[in-house]
Each structure stands twice: as structure tokens, then as C-alpha cells.
Design brief:
single chain, alpha+beta, Ferric Hydroxamate Uptake Protein, Chain A, domain 1, Immunoglobulin-like, Glycosyltransferase, five-stranded mixed β-sheet, 16 helices, about 30% helix, globular
Length: about 625
């Protein structure tokens, strides 16, 4: 009898709550005229893993406010894909929209990152479809009408696979093109597209030079024969050649008439002579700062005494801080190679310009890691040590971007650069482990030629190999053997069919690697300027950057950018999440002493939140009944 009374009392509480909720909202809890509210069916996938699958009621017409990553509210249509996804996020513990960014130029929100309990935090490659159709607008611009099927998945819509990344002119290349089937995590044939072999156009970095084109056949395969010697990017024309994969084509091996063929030897002096012979009258190399800076680093690796009356005059004539962080980093490296002071080179503070792009966590673009890597290199030669907060935090950020396979961005180039940047900080917690994993990744990417897919990747990998004290070889061939096989009679490490700028570029990259010199070995260290009565100020100084208007040509390390954050194994919901609905702030109760307590009444809740609370009470009541049954 006692338990029966308790049951009746608890049931009365439930009934009273539902009655009050109905009164407060001023409407019937059942749909008018018995017409059911349409749903939006959502599936979120990461490969074979279904992160979340369920239905969300189509919200009433109107607007809601969603907060970006900085907590700033932005008004979006309540029936947009993004708003409905935010509803699903609010009711599910399986995933979180962990980084929502606002782009004023587009007036749109971008779902950059989503964290899940099974796959960690994934960023920058989320795709979505509505009723099996890819939209050409952002999630916050796509307005739903009800009963749509929404698929959200992480990965690429298309891919293409090369039969080989290195071959000779007598061999055939096939490229298989495919399209992702997000409904069952399979790949299907992609037809009606054209595959191209391209090379960079220095005068137009956004539009490559098409060398060879081949349409795919009915099975989605493009075929290439008699490819000229050279290095190419392979991509699909209809995708504007993004992404691309590297291809290297060499001359066929020379027959030795039964006696074998002699392995060519790399001639460093010939490579250096090639650079010197191609210096312009104004002191530049390739008539651009980028090629000149790399040529300076290469020639200093060979201890060549540069003509101060030519190259120095050029450096002074182009002595202006750039709005592009990597330009300032590269120029600082070149100045340090010459033994010049990058804190004050004829009035320009290149180290200050680098520090001016520090936001307390990382340098420059938060979507990139190469600018953080190349900031660490000149800073470590300019008096900054592991004891400086800017170095500690930069190292921490770089380590957070290393992937589980040991790479950064699945790139030989970026991984090799990271090794050279981190090697001076082996004693910092986590660095030694990261270097070991990077070593394993790089060694796994060496192919039977001894190289790493192309000249630039091989050259930078050689710098990492020297930094790590390793001697990688594959098929009894070393990276130096690969460079030797690509060295021409004039000393350049690039085919004569390439442009002068590309030949200077590739040769400049190769020389330090061939000499077993890291960038740290080449640069001359300088001291950090003393401030505040001979004490070093660990704070990042405020620097006025005078930007020179110029066409920025990206460096090779920027070609293979595919930013991805470190995957965490234990994913937790953000400490505080704000969603503003009808101008009422509802804060997540999982706070770390941030913000104010929950301030919304039942009458301010939208339908889905009210229903969730009702369902929770029902579940509690059910458990209560079971206890006393």
C-alpha cells in the first residue's frame, strides 16, 4: 500500500508538469488537426562508422541564433540544414559541432569540425547531401521543407588512383577515377571526366599548365603513354585539379650490354655552378624573391661566398615585410644563412613580423601547420628557446597536428620540414616520440628508386634524414642516387623541359640534402634583443608590418596542404556550448565556471527541448515504477 501511494504521487507530479508546460506554452501538445510534424532524417557517417542516425522534427518557420567558435551569435533560418543539425547535436551525446566558423565575406557559417565519441575530432572535409543531391550553398543557406533525407559524411566526394607514382617514358600510366557512395561506404565508377598531367605555372599559381589530357573510359580509367621526362601533378580537370597526386617520369634505364649499368653519381659542384650561372644582373635568381631566398640557402650550404654587390643589393631592393607569413619566414631563413640580423635588416624586423602573426596558440592561419613549422625554424636560430612560451605553445600546436601514421598532412614535404623544425627540441615532452613516428612514416614512403616521389620531396626528406642521423635506402638505392638520376648535364636537378624558375627551385632544394645539411646547420644563430634592463621579454612584441603589394607565389610546401587536426581518443563535449533560441540564451550545464546558469523557462523552450525533457521524466518515472514493482 505504501509503494502504491508513492507511485500515485509521482504520477501526479508528471501529470501536473505536462499540464503546466501546456499552459505556459499556451498551446496543445498535440499537432493541430492531427497533422503530424514532418521530420528530417539525418545520417552522419565517418567511413564505415555511423556516428549518429535519427530523425529531428522540422522546426517552425523563423530564425534561430547559432554561436560561432568565438561565442558570437549569428542568425540563420530555423529550417536550414545547419539549424536542424544543431538540434540533433543538442539531443545527442554521440557527436558535437566542435568548431563553427563565420566568414563575413560570404555572410555564412561553416561547420569546420565535428567531434564524435568514436572517431575523435575531424575537420575541414565534411560533405553533405539533401535527398541525394549535393548543394552548392553552405548548410546555413540550404532551407528544408520536411521529410528530407540528409547525409553528412567526412571524406572526399571523388578520388583517383595512379597505377604508379614513378615510372619511365616507356611505361604506361593508368588513372582510375571513382565517386564515393555515402549510403553504404563504397566507391563506384566515375565517368564523363578528363584526367590531366599538369605542371605549376609560376606566373599564375591558380591555373596549372596542362601537359597531357586523357578522358576516362566507361570503366572510369584514363590511360597515358609516352609521357615526357618530368615531374607532374595528376588530377581531374572538372575538379579544377584538386586534389592532385605527384608523378615522376624518368628516362628508361641504360642497358649495360650484359655488364650492368653504372649508377650515376650526384655532382654537387655542378649543381652549385648551375645556380651561379643563372643569377640575374639584379642579383636575383629566377627574378623573384622566393627562388632567390632558396638559392641563397642552397649556396650557403655549399659555403659559397655570395657576391655581396649583387645579391645583397637585390635583398635590399626587396626589403619589405610581406602580408604572407611564409614569405617573412623564408626571408628570415635566408638572412640567417648569410649571417645577417633578421631583427633589423636595414630597418626591417622579420622576426617581429613572424611574432606579429602569433595568436597565443599558433602562427598565421589556424587551418595550416606549415606556417607554424616554418616559424619555429628561424625563431630557434634567433635566440628563442624551449623556455619561451611562444616556442612551448608552437611545439604543442605542431605536435597536435601530427597524424596517427606519423605524418603531418600525409605529406613527405611537410613531415620532413616538421622533423627539421623539431629536432632542436628533442628534450621537450612528446617531441622524441613524434620524431620516431615521423621517421617511420618517411621511411615507409621511400620507393624503389631511392627517392620519395619527386625531387622536392626527396630533397626535404634528405634534410630530415640528416637531422635524424639515418641512412635510408630502398632496393639498394639511396635518395642521393635518385637525385643523381635526375641531374642533367648542365648540373640542374630537373629536366631541361621545365621552366628556368622550376629548375632553379628544384636545384636549390636538392643541394642542402645532397650535402647532408639541415636548415639548422646552414643558418647562423643570432641573439634575441635585450629589453627591460638586459632581461629578455617573453611576450610577443607588437610589430607594425609594412605590407608590400606583390603577387605571392606559394612555396612548394604549400602545394600539398590538407589540414587535419589530431584525432583524440577520448572525446568530451565542449565545456560550454551556447545556443540562442528566440533571443533566450540556453547554456549547457557542463560548465567550468564560465558564463551564467540556465536562464530559460519552460515557456522559452522550443518543442524539441520540451519533448526531450518530457521523455526524460517519463524514463525516470518508468524506472521508479520498476523499482517498486
Amino acid at each position: 500500500m505504501k509503494y502504491l501511494k508513492i507511485k500515485i504521487a509521482f504520477l501526479s507530479v508528471i501529470i501536473i508538469f505536462f499540464g503546466l508546460a501546456t499552459i505556459v506554452k499556451g498551446e496543445d501538445i498535440t499537432p493541430p488537426d492531427g497533422v503530424p510534424t514532418p521530420n528530417e532524417n539525418i545520417t552522419i557517417r565517418d567511413g564505415a562508422n555511423i556516428i549518429w542516425q535519427g530523425a529531428v522534427p522540422l522546426p517552425k518557420e523563423g530564425n534561430v541564433d547559432l554561436n560561432d567558435k568565438d561565442g558570437n551569435p549569428h542568425t540563420v533560418n530555423a529550417r536550414s540544414v545547419l539549424a536542424v543539425l544543431a538540434e540533433a547535436d543538442a539531443i545527442s551525446s554521440d557527436f558535437d559541432i566542435s568548431d563553427l566558423e563565420y566568414y563575413p565575406s560570404f555572410g555564412s557559417l561553416y561547420m569546420k569540425c565535428m567531434a564524435s565519441t568514436t572517431g575523435g575530432d575531424k575537420c575541414d572535409n565534411w560533405q553533405y547531401t539533401v535527398n541525394n543531391s549535393y548543394a552548392f550553398v553552405g548548410m546555413d543557406q540550404n532551407i528544408l521543407s520536411g521529410d528530407e533525407n540528409i547525409y553528412i559524411y567526412f571524406g572526399t566526394q571523388y578520388r583517383h588512383t595512379l597505377s604508379a607514382t614513378t615510372l619511365n617514358t616507356s611505361e604506361t600510366l593508368t588513372v582510375n577515377t571513382e565517386e564515393y557512395n555515402y549510403e553504404d561506404d563504397t566507391w563506384k565508377v566515375r565517368s564523363g571526366v578528363t584526367v590531366g598531367l599538369t605542371q605549376p605555372d609560376p606566373s599564375n599559381p591558380w591555373s596549372p599548365t596542362e601537359v597531357l589530357l586523357s578522358p576516362v573510359d566507361a570503366s572510369g580509367v584514363a590511360t597515358f603513354t609516352s609521357i615526357p621526362v618530368g615531374t607532374y601533378d595528376v588530377g581531374v580537370k572538372e575538379d579544377y585539379y584538386y586534389p592532385t597526386y605527384s608523378l615522376t617520369v624518368n628516362n628508361p634505364p641504360i642497358s649495360g650490354g650484359g655488364g650492368g649499368s653504372a649508377t650515376p653519381k650526384f655532382n654537387t659542384e655542378s649543381a652549385i655552378s648551375y645556380l651561379i650561372s643563372n643569377q640575374s644582373k639584379d642579383g636575383s635568381f629566377g627574378d623573384a624573391s622566393m627562388y632567390t631566398d632558396w638559392a641563397i640557402i642552397a649556396l650557403r650550404a655549399g659555403n659559397y661566398a655570395l657576391n655581396t654587390n649583387s645579391v645583397m643589393q637585390y635583398l635590399e631592393s626587396t626589403n619589405a615585410l610581406s602580408g604572407n607569413l611564409t614569405d617573412n619566414e623564408r626571408r628570415a631563413m635566408a638572412l640567417l644563412s648569410l649571417g645577417e640580423n633578421p631583427y633589423d635588416y636595414h630597418g626591417m624586423n622579420y622576426i617581429g613580423a613572424i611574432l606579429g602573426k602569433w595568436n597565443g596558440t599558433q602562427f598565421g592561419d589556424a587551418n595550416l601547420v606549415n606556417d607554424d613549422i616554418f616559424a619555429l625554424i628561424p625563431l630557434s636560430a634567433s635566440g628563442y628557446t624551449r623556455n619561451d612560451d611562444v616556442i612551448k605553445n608552437d611545439i604543442e600546436f605542431i605536435l597536435s597536428k601530427q597524424k596517427s601514421n606519423g605524418s603531418w598532412e600525409d605529406s613527405v614535404d611537410v613531415t620532413a620540414a616538421a622533423v627539421q623544425a623539431l629536432i632542436k627540441f628533442k628534450s621537450v615532452n612528446g617531441v622524441s616520440f613524434a620524431l620516431t613516428n615521423a621517421n617511420d612514416f618517411l621511411e615507409s614512403k621511400q620507393d624503389s628508386t631511392g627517392g620519395f616521389g619527386n625531387i622536392s620531396s626527396t630533397s626535404w626528406a634528405m634534410g630530415a634524414m640528416s637531422a635524424l642521423g639515418k641512412d635510408w635506402a630502398k632496393n639498394n638505392k639511396s635518395p642521393l642516387d635518385y637525385l643523381a638520376s635526375n641531374q642533367e648535364a648542365d648540373g640542374a636537378i630537373s629536366p631541361v623541359s621545365e621552366t628556368l624558375q622550376n629548375r632553379i627551385w628544384a636545384t636549390s632544394y636538392a643541394i642542402p640534402g645532397a650535402l647532408s645539411k639541415t636548415w639548422n646547420d646552414i643558418m647562423v644563430e643570432v641573439s634575441k634583443p635585450e629589453v627591460n634592463n638586459n632581461t629578455t621579454d617573453d611576450k610577443v612584441p607588437e610589430v607594425k608590418v609594412e605590407v608590400k603589394e606583390e603577387i605571392v607565389i606559394p612555396t612548394l610546401v604549400q602545394k600539398n596542404i590538407n589540414p587535419e587536426v589530431k584525432i583524440e581518443t577520448n572525446v568530451k563535449k565542449p565545456a560550454l556550448k551556447k545556443v540562442i533560441i528566440k533571443d533566450v540564451v540556453i547554456e549547457d550545464t557542463q560548465k567550468n565556471n564560465i558564463g551564467s546558469p540556465l536562464v530559460a523557462s519552460v515557456g522559452d523552450m522550443n518543442d524539441s527541448i520540451l519533448k526531450s525533457f518530457k521523455n526524460w521524466l517519463i524514463s525516470i518515472f518508468t524506472r521508479f515504477i520498476n523499482i517498486f514493482s
